Amino acid sequence: MKNIIQPVKGTREFYPLEMAVRNWIYENIRNVSESFGYSEYDGPFLEPTDLYAAKSGEELVKEQSFVFPDRGGNLITLRPELTPSLARMVAQKQRQLVYPLRWWSFGPFWRYEKPQKGRAREFFQWNIDLIGSKSPEADAELIAICAEFFKQIGLTPDNVKVLINDRRLMDQKLSELGIEASLKKMTLKIIDRQDKMDRSTWKAYALDNGLKEEQFVGLTKILGNTDLYQESAELQTVFNALESLGVREYVQFDPKIVRGLDYYTGVVFEARDIGKGARAILGGGRYDNLVKDVGGEPLTGVGFAMGDVVLPIILEQYGLIPDLQVNPTQILVTIFDENLMPVSLATAANLRRAGFSVQTYPEPAKIGKQLKFADRCAVQFAIVIGPEEKEQGIVQVKDLRTREQSSVPTDGLIKYINGMLAE
Amino acid sequence: MKNIIQPVKGTREFYPLEMAVRNWIYENIRNVSESFGYSEYDGPFLEPTDLYAAKSGEELVKEQSFVFPDRGGNLITLRPELTPSLARMVAQKQRQLVYPLRWWSFGPFWRYEKPQKGRAREFFQWNIDLIGSKSPEADAELIAICAEFFKQIGLTPDNVKVLINDRRLMDQKLSELGIEASLKKMTLKIIDRQDKMDRSTWKAYALDNGLKEEQFVGLTKILGNTDLYQESAELQTVFNALESLGVREYVQFDPKIVRGLDYYTGVVFEARDIGKGARAILGGGRYDNLVKDVGGEPLTGVGFAMGDVVLPIILEQYGLIPDLQVNPTQILVTIFDENLMPVSLATAANLRRAGFSVQTYPEPAKIGKQLKFADRCAVQFAIVIGPEEKEQGIVQVKDLRTREQSSVPTDGLIKYINGMLAE
Questions:
Q1: Interface test with B, best of A137, A234, A336, A340 (most B CBs within 10 A)
Q2: Which residue out of A3, A5, A64 would a mutagenesis test of the B interface target, given it has the greatest number of B Cβ atoms within 10 Å?
Q3: Res. B72 pLDDT band, cuts 50 70 90
Q4: Per-residue pLDDT averaged across A226-248, rounded?
Q5: Is B226 strand, coil or helix?
Q6: In chain B, pLDDT over 90 holds for what percent of residues?
Q7: B40:A34 CB<8 A
Q8: What's the CATH architecture for B16-317?
Q9: Mind telling me how many Å the CA of A177 is from chain B's nearest CA?
Q10: What is the ipTM of this complex?
Q11: Mind listing the pLDDT tens digit for each residue in A95-140?
């Protein structure tokens, strides 16, 4: 097996077990999203690079995206995120759509990152957004959706927290420190980088990028002040709504959360494992200008995105991934010999029409070999039809859990299997 | 709305209605695939160009694929098909996997084709394959899966047919015409192009590419001979198996079917709308060398792929796309005013925990406006909680189908809604 063509670094192969995990996550996402009344949608996977250039932030577009020219020379990007596509789709049908608009999606994204544990270049992402309401209760709803998702898959407030902040509050505090408008975007970047550097490197980074010594000292005070949300009417309303929604215990104010995307304008949040990894599981926030920025009329939005790479690592750590069914097959119909192929095929077809998942062995082979195959597929029943069975109008049904075997009349087979399954 | 950033030509936007259609197709695919005992899997979306270069055929790789260099200069392809990835995944775990192996998948693919009705540059595709059996009954099983899929979505044998042929049979007939081995691949291409050209263009194409006049005449006779399958033991076994499986009427021999991919080695098939469009819906066949060609031990396979672009066009033509639910919401909880926000949020949260899909209006607004929103979302129930209701511990439930309104005690609300839904 030496010359197998290798997959591209950072891409994903979903063998049936990995696929079952992806589907289990998708199903939980669907349940929670639909429970809040959100409709599923999807955008294109290829987008013009211009769509991101405006507002996603330079790092994402220039360093972290797969960008290539199409045959006409236009720059195309493999979507690194969905919100700009969502904004464009809304802008295109802005007058026909009904607001508040609640949409969710689950699909593939690409980022050119160094592949490592918790990072892949291809990943799946849940996106969920509420468009057309400025209320803090809309922000709270999205945060409650995170919390309900965690609750549903078994993560408690002792495992994970949604950390929230408000860029408007930070903007006000930065003004109070005398940080000029032109330096504010950079300051948010400095805050965002804090936990990626050690203390002295981070300080040097802050001062190199224009903060004065006393502004830096002031900034560290702000970032340590966990009561700061009391200065924000919006955040207090968000917390009250979260209380009413019954998920307050999952949520915590954290002034260090500002998120990296340029388009956020208000409440921002990030969910983290609170174990020692402190890995970010999802992030989101309010964006009030994005629909306008892609060419629509002004329209506000709030939403978040969660990838599928970090989550399973955390779930495994807490033993929360259930035993998942990898092979749907319930019944194997064996093939006694070439002459008896037709009766076995017809029996399988009848069982399928009755709603069962049925495989036939695709060719005659020793019955022992076929039964071993049934065991390896974790099939529950194996059916054997030899010449005598055919003549008598019966089949042999082996229950592979109990190893018991019964002779069952062909015309009573469906009823028999249903009975066994109901036991 | 003049300056909206345009999507890339040939890409797809799935608004909730289009998404519901995609999901409906996916669900039908899942049902049929699982009914035959196949497990879901998925491959990477980005693959090294080398993976396709070997065996998919020059046209697909050089003309129809999105190919670009990664940052290290290696050529990467957006997957135009799945079979080579499947072969590689099998080769990588060849000793651990259980055979016969039955796998299916549904996901995005890309081809650089001229966008037109029935063609897109981004599309979804169903792939389903049986690996590790050489028997004609394995070929028949895949064809039966096509037929059962058509049956399930309502397409009858009067609407669609699966046309089948065998490349081994064609190879033998081409030998009988004195067509040399070196010209056979080209001859298959000539056959494959027949219905894309008018008669005289096609003849010129055949002669220009090396066929002699008498070989061309012989070839047209072969392509018109619908009894030719009687010379193929394999095809006769396939037809017998299809008879046993109860789907013979969906299938027809057609010597003009050879399929375009280079890696097919035996039975090949294509399903077509038999209306005047005669559009190809899906195609597949047997490939006995592909696992070896990507670096594994020799292992046979048979499978097919169906895109999601042509199928809905045909289904619409026959009126077979059902009314699909676009918005999952069952209940809207209105917001009377800011003071009553908490009781409405808490009521919504309780209803969600009872399993209902519930939206709240995200801010206080005139009740009439909120009810109009409920109607536009096709919500069944709207709940109003004003100051009096709160004081009395009741809620008003409006059934938006009948416009009837009832006062319901808060603690009996879940039971009440369940009762209304059971009616």
A1: A137
A2: A5
A3: confident
A4: 97
A5: coil
A6: 85
A7: no
A8: 2-Layer Sandwich (3.30)
A9: 34
A10: 0.95
A11: 999 999 999 999 999 998 877 777 889 999 999 999 999 999 999 9
Q: Which of B48, B103, B107 sits opposite A5 (nearest CB)?
A: B48
Q: Which residue matches tokens 């029943």?
A: A381
The reply to whether residue B2 touches residue A295, judged by beta carbons under 8 angstroms, is yes
Residue-level length of chain A: 423
pLDDT value, residue B224: 96
Which tens digits make up the pLDDT trace of A379-419?
A: 999 999 999 999 999 999 999 999 999 999 999 999 999 99
Confidence of residue B33 (pLDDT cuts 50, 70, 90): very high
Distance (Å, rounded) from C-alpha A375 to C-alpha A369?
Answer: 10
Among B5, B16, B91, select the one facing A41 at the smallest CB separation. B16
- A110: chain B residues, CB-CB within 8 Å: 45-46
Instruction: Report the predicted TM-score, pTM, of the whole model to 2 decimal places.
Output: 0.95
* DSSP state letters, B237-301: HHHHHHHHTT-GGGEEE-TT---S-TT--SEEEEEEE-STT--EEEEEEEESSHHHHTTS----E
Q: What is residue A233's predicted lDDT score, i.e. its pLDDT? A: 96
Inspect the interface and report whether the beta carbons of B8 and A377 lie closer than 8 Å.
no
Q: For residue A57, what pLDDT band results from cuts at 50, 70 and 90? A: low
Do A331-422 and A16-317 fall under one CATH topology?
A: no
The domain defined by B331-422 carries CATH number 1.10.10.10: no
Q: Are strands A46-48 and B67-69 parallel, antiparallel or unpaired?
A: unpaired
**Which residue is listed with tokens 């009096």?**
B388
Gap from A44 CA to chain B (nearest CA, Å): 5
B1 pLDDT band (50/70/90 cuts)? very low
Looking up tokens 């397409």 gives: B155
Structural domain boundaries in chain B = 16-317, 331-422
Size (chain B), residues:
423
Asked whether the beta carbons of residue A362 and residue B141 sit closer than 8 angstroms, the reply is yes
Contact A5 B240 (CB under 8 A): no
The DSSP string of A263-331 is T--SEEEEEEE-STT--EEEEEEEESSHHHHTTS----EEEEEEESSHHHHHHHHTT-PPP-------E
Query: Residue B388 burial by CB count (10 A; 0-12/13-18/19+): exposed, middle or buried?
Result: exposed
- The DSSP bridge pattern shows strands A251-253 and A160-166 to be parallel
pLDDT for res A72:
79
Which helix H or strand E contains A353, and what residues bound it?
A: helix A341-353
